[in-house]
Amino acid sequence: MKSRIKNVHLIRTFIPVGTGGPIPPLEMLYVASQLRRDFGDTLHLRLTDTGVGSLSEDDIRDEWREFAPDLVILYALSWEAGLVHALAAAVKELHPDTTVVVFGQLATFSSQYLCEDPHIDFVVVGEPELTVAQLVGALREQCEDLSGINGLAYRIHGAVTTTAPREYPDNIDAFEIIPEMWDAIDIRRYAQYENWNGAIKEDFYIPILTQRGCPFKCTFCRETYGKKFHARSPEHVLAEIKFLHERYGAREFHIYDPVFNYDQDRAKRICQLIIDAGLPISLAFPHGVRADIMTEELLTLMRRAGTYKLVYGIESASRRLQKAFRKNLNLEQVREIIRVTADKGIITGGYFMLGHLSETAGEIEETIRFAVTSDLDVASFFKATDYDDVNKIYASKFKDNLDDTDIFAGIRDIAYYAVNRSQAAVDAAELNRLVLSAQRRFYFHPRRIWRGFGRYPSKRKYIKNLLTAAGLILQGYIVQSLAADTTAKKPAAEAVAHSHA
Based on the domain organization, do 366 and 242 belong to the same domain? Predict the structure, then answer.
């Protein structure tokens, strides 16, 4: 007897945390494409991104009343845990027999705790396409033994079990997003939201992924696709770009690779194929590329292929911290490659993390000064994130307390711009002040403002973004001043207690 699984609802559980709006959910499109390849029209697939239109739990409930899913697949980042548990409970309330599966960053690094939620049936660990497809096949066949499906966590008689890890393939050309799944989302609508890249050059953009996995050993990173570099062939990448350009008129592509320039020959080949094809496109690399392995030769090809912006992951200008979290960048080499990149007319960005464990105010100042005095056009000053904190919160508070919203607020507070958190040798209030100071000193530098105006392709968008940034920084200072004033008016003992909360 076959399973009744027919209606499958894939949901991107987006929650805004200050890093921009939703971007087209590539991972969900990859999983949906694999299901269509393996099961054809025997499955009715529906794709929803809660970030598009700011959908609420009630909105999703309305969809479920109409669609009646047999299987709900949730794709989530770590700080979206609260929405994941809420939606899992909601669908079980409406349709108790619906199977709930979670994949993505949250699932990969917190599988044990997700499985303790009775509303979640299966958790996919690592690369999701084959695991999800094999699970669906087993459920449709009503297989009781799932131990042969690698990369899966679930409960057996109340105890959580995890199967063998899924191995990462060398080539991922087979994981292709099919045209139907690109058509299933309103690709142009995403351009109305802020994104990782900031101001875009064209009317809209499409993100693509040319490789997965990062072989570097940075201790702060949690790469869902593991430490093995595995990639698409350059020809396959070009074919996707050409298809998206011809089908949707896309002229701007954002590369979201963990480390595009790790394999230099492959990266150069991709650029050369784009150049040879004569495609009138623009490229941006908002996810960050590795500065210490970048070469001038590759930069030249990237520029010729249409690259107008890229970002380097620098993190800290403290040599102690570079060594401590195993990034091990040569900071003078980084400063020089920033200069070379900027000289080629590429808008050059840097990602920095402030507030690492034990980081001092002096070390934070080192990082700010490095950014301000560099040739960077753009800098993002994030709060250092420790993803292990998610599991610490789960372990200490979550079990048998699924409805505690304070727990999920705590998990959400690991996000890059969270205001209540500091691991550093300074408290959260002081760290917030330093982040605001970094933004002000960097962006309100006259030379940088003038150069940015000349370099950005859209002057209107540049001015708009600059004014928005100024408003947010000013707002931050006002809020901070009010908070400080309120604290000053409290009795001394209360103020001291508050400062250590």
Answer: yes
Alpha helices in 222-348 (DSSP H): 234-248, 264-277, 296-304, 319-324, 331-343
What residue numbers bound the domain in which 372 lies?
195-418
Tell me how far apart the 2 most distant CA atoms of the chain are, in Å. Answer: 72
Q: Decide if 487 is inside a domain.
A: no
Q: Hunting for tokens 């919203």 — which residue is that?
A: 405
Q: Which two tokens stand for residue 253?
A: 């592509």
Is 129 part of a structural domain of the chain? yes
Q: What is the pLDDT of residue 384?
A: 86
Amino acid identity of residue 69, one-letter, is: P
Query: Of 142-156, 190-204, 210-224, 462-476, where does mean pLDDT reach its minimum?
Result: 462-476
CA-closest candidate to residue 213, choices 201, 200, 203, 226: 226
Tell me what percent of the residues of the chain surpass a pLDDT of 90: 72
Contact 340, 367 (CB under 8 A): no
Helix then strand count (H, E) for the chain reads 19, 15
- What's the order of all strands across the beta sheet hosting 282-289? 206-208, 252-255, 282-289, 307-315, 347-354, 378-383
Residue 344 has pLDDT above 60, yes or no: yes
